[in-house]
Amino acid sequence: MNISKIKTILLAAGVTIMAISMILFPDESFSASIRGLHMWWEIVFPSLFPFFVISELLIGFGVVKFMGVLLEPLMRPLFRVPGVGGFAWAMGMATGFPAGAKLSARLRQERQLSRVEAERLVSFTNSSSPLFIFGAVSVGFFNNPRLGIFLAIAHYLGNFLVGLCMRFYGKKEPRKYREKRSLWMIFSQALSSMHRTRLKNKKPIGKLLGDAVLSSIQTLLMIGGFIILFSVVNKLLYHLNITLLLANITEYVLIAFHLPKELGIPIIAGIFEITLGSQMTSQVNEAILMHQAIITSFILGFSGFSVQAQVASILAETDIKFKPFFIARILHGFLAAGITFILWKPFAEKFHIVSGNNAIPVILQEHDLWWENTLNLFVKFGPIITIISLIIYIYLFYKKMDSTNP
């Protein structure tokens, strides 16, 4: 029996087991689906939708090309990607998963990146958003807003180091020698590139905006499906004791790193779904805050199979390979956990992370309140934004169908 047939049997068996498990545990499956839906409904959709639409418009109007020319002297030496990668990197950090993958795929479709450059770029432009790190994890799960500062430092620094490591991926391109140019010459070239890009895109503004909305909502619907699916899968794996079995294996690794074995189940949960893993880590009373922060940093860096499946679905529309992204996520998880371990002692006291220290600077108090209020606003008004956006999507979709079928 060849490997292809074995793979077919394993995939068929896995899907069959999941289907039977949903029949055996209907209540648990339903509650997990509702949990995933609430996450997408209240937080993911309203936070990502505006950025996705604006990104499409910025690409269409040539602003990304403009930024690419300006950022070329920075991005090329550091990460061996064109300057347009700086836009994807910034948007990926601001909005979170899987914005970096979507923008990288879009730039590849626009032929602004080679395949290898796109694979390098997508490896370090996908990260958790500040809203998720500060609002959901530090405030919602740990009830310790100041922990978010430390987790963000470890997460984004780890992501930067991943980008430096991935610059060695792929064949070395011949070095391009460029003549020295003044800042005015670079700015003038950037303006010319933006103008040419806008002229090349002959769509009217209304058409461009409509396509941006349709493309963004289609991507977000796909993301919502993956969030709900993996929320159910994670719950079923727990009730089938598969999570416990895998956690028993990770106990040996945790003991080797002097971490409590009770963190095994949260790690396995986080490998599948980032939110549940972070929440379960915060609930392990046998672990001190430093141990919880190390595991949470690893989960945030690895991102979970749920996010990786979203990225794989986006990359499938291009010739960008998924394997470099997957390796980068493993590397990011270990780098973020290592940074958390190294920097914990000098930074924990400085940022007043450890509970019991009542001397909190005013600037940190305002920072904590801002993220908590932002999260509450999304929970309150997020569903309204989602409903209005879906109504607009239905209207634009049927309008487009009518125009193509006279």
TrEMBL record:
<feature type="transmembrane region" description="Helical">
    <location>
        <begin position="79"/>
        <end position="100"/>
    </location>
</feature>
<feature type="transmembrane region" description="Helical">
    <location>
        <begin position="377"/>
        <end position="398"/>
    </location>
</feature>
<dbReference type="InterPro" id="IPR014226">
    <property type="entry name" value="Spore_IM_YlbJ"/>
</dbReference>
<feature type="domain" description="Nucleoside transporter/FeoB GTPase Gate">
    <location>
        <begin position="44"/>
        <end position="140"/>
    </location>
</feature>
<feature type="transmembrane region" description="Helical">
    <location>
        <begin position="287"/>
        <end position="305"/>
    </location>
</feature>
<feature type="transmembrane region" description="Helical">
    <location>
        <begin position="326"/>
        <end position="344"/>
    </location>
</feature>
<feature type="domain" description="Nucleoside transporter/FeoB GTPase Gate">
    <location>
        <begin position="220"/>
        <end position="316"/>
    </location>
</feature>
<dbReference type="InterPro" id="IPR011642">
    <property type="entry name" value="Gate_dom"/>
</dbReference>
<feature type="transmembrane region" description="Helical">
    <location>
        <begin position="236"/>
        <end position="256"/>
    </location>
</feature>
<feature type="transmembrane region" description="Helical">
    <location>
        <begin position="121"/>
        <end position="142"/>
    </location>
</feature>
<dbReference type="Pfam" id="PF07670">
    <property type="entry name" value="Gate"/>
</dbReference>
<protein>
    <submittedName>
        <fullName>Sporulation integral membrane protein YlbJ</fullName>
    </submittedName>
</protein>
<feature type="transmembrane region" description="Helical">
    <location>
        <begin position="148"/>
        <end position="170"/>
    </location>
</feature>
<keyword id="KW-0472">Membrane</keyword>
<feature type="transmembrane region" description="Helical">
    <location>
        <begin position="6"/>
        <end position="25"/>
    </location>
</feature>
<keyword id="KW-1133">Transmembrane helix</keyword>
<keyword id="KW-0812">Transmembrane</keyword>
<feature type="transmembrane region" description="Helical">
    <location>
        <begin position="208"/>
        <end position="230"/>
    </location>
</feature>
